[in-house]
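Entry type: protein chain
Record version: 2
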Amino acid sequence: MTGGSPTEADLEAIVAAVRNRDYAVSEHALARGADPARPGIRDVVAGIAEDFPRIVGDDRGQHDPRGAVATIECENRQGRTLRVRVNYSRRPIVLVTQFWRDADYD
């Protein structure tokens, strides 16, 4: 973790980082993005940068020793709702994982 965990997610800063391509993608997110049943990285980036993203969860660093993670909900260009988990306490921010809100992955 770099510089400690912020107290809460800053949606404007996350959106700006994605728009400026100042983010990293975890190996986990890359693998999930290659799965046709999951949103791709393009869906994630478009949803955060172009849609009206909203924070629906924020662990503020309480559940993961790697840093604070926010869950962001947005839509891809086709209008399907997805959620992405973003580690916002790291620089650059890290896209950790992504999934369709309505999917049953069990």
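Comment: The chain has a mean pLDDT of 90.
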